[in-house]
């Protein structure tokens, strides 16, 4: 039995729909500007430029119905609803035609962003970590198994704040498809079981305030509810 200098923290995990078993999270990858309309609203060219990726920490995951504590050092926190891909196996240099075979299931996530800190980092050509990889910044709803729902390539992606629709998109608007994202990521990292991929957000991102209730939805996948604390 391994002797640690202190007790290891719990393994970050996500609920699985229809099961008491949890999905243990290994890494959390995010794809930037994967909807053309969102690229435009962020001031970028919507053409199909090579994708870029950033990461959040697994312990930043927050379950469905959770409270997202408004984070420190910011006055401009934004929501970004996304479909999340969960991998049950991985590898390097994965071919696109083999990528779907690695997928355990799909969920609904929110990529919370400290937009003011991200903007400052961009201006200074610094990493985005403080704007993206902070505590509780990656809510994710229960995962639906791919064996039950298939591999969705179309369907509404929406987010409501206090009952008002703020984001509307469709999975068929993704610039880079799920197999393409998995293949491209595997050229940069060795992917593994437990990896999560936040696939990008449609347009309509905006700020949250304490007390707001957010409801994300991906047609054919599921839903996610979070309250801002």
Report on this structure.
- Residues 28-228 form the Fumarylacetoacetase-like C-terminal domain.
- This protein is an alpha+beta fold and 229 residues long.
- It has a single domain, classed as Fumarylacetoacetate hydrolase, domain 2 (Alpha-Beta Complex).
- The protein has six helices and 18 strands.
- The protein has helices at residues 36-41, 96-99, 115-123, 129-132, 146-149, 178-186, and strands spanning 13-15, 22-24, 28-31, 53-56, 61-62, 67-68, 77-79, 81-87, 103-110, 113-114, 138-139, 144-145, 156-161, 164-170, 196-198, 206-207, 213-218, 222-228.
- The strands form five sheets. The protein has a six-stranded mixed sheet with strand order 4-3-15-8-9-12.
- Strand 17 and strand 18 form a beta hairpin.
- The model has no long low-confidence stretch (mean pLDDT 94).
Record keyword descriptors for this entry.
alpha+beta; metal ion binding; Fumarylacetoacetate hydrolase, domain 2; five-stranded mixed beta sheet; globular; metal-binding; six-stranded mixed beta sheet; acetylpyruvate hydrolase activity; 32% strand
Q: Can you identify the CATH superfamily? A: Fumarylacetoacetase-like, C-terminal domain
Shape category: globular
The major beta sheet can be summarized as:
6 strands, mixed
Strand order of the largest sheet: 4-3-15-8-9-12
Distance between the termini: 40 Å
> What is the CATH level 1 assignment?
Alpha Beta
InterPro entries: Fumarylacetoacetase-like_C, Fumarylacetoacetase_C_sf
Keywords: Hydrolase, Metal-binding
GO molecular function: acetylpyruvate hydrolase activity; metal ion binding
Organism: Hansschlegelia quercus
């Amino acid at each position: 039995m391994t002797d640690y200098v202190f007790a290891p923290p719990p393994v970050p995990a996500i609920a699985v729909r229809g099961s008491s078993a949890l999905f243990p999270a290994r890494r959390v990858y995010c794809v930037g500007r994967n909807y053309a309309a969102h690229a435009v609203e962020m001031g970028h060219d919507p053409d199909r430029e090579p994708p870029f990726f950033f990461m959040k920490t697994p312990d930043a995951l927050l379950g469905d119905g959770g409270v997202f504590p408004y984070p420190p050092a910011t006055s401009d926190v934004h929501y970004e609803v996304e479909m999340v891909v969960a991998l049950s196996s991985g590898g390097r240099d994965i071919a696109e035609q083999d990528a779907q075979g690695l997928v355990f299931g799909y969920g609904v996530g929110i990529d919370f962003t400290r937009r003011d800190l991200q903007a400052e980092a961009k201006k200074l050509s610094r990493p985005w970590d403080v704007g993206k990889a902070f505590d509780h910044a990656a809510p994710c709803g229960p995962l639906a198994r791919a064996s039950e729902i298939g591999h969705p390539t179309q369907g509404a992606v929406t987010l409501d704040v206090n009952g008002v629709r703020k984001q509307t998109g469709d999975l068929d608007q993704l610039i880079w498809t799920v197999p393409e994202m998995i293949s491209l990521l595997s050229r940069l990292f060795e992917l593994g079981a437990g990896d999560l991929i936040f696939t990008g957000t449609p347009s309509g991102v905006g700020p949250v305030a304490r007390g707001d209730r957010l409801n994300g939805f991906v047609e054919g996948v599921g839903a996610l509810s979070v309250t801002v604390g």
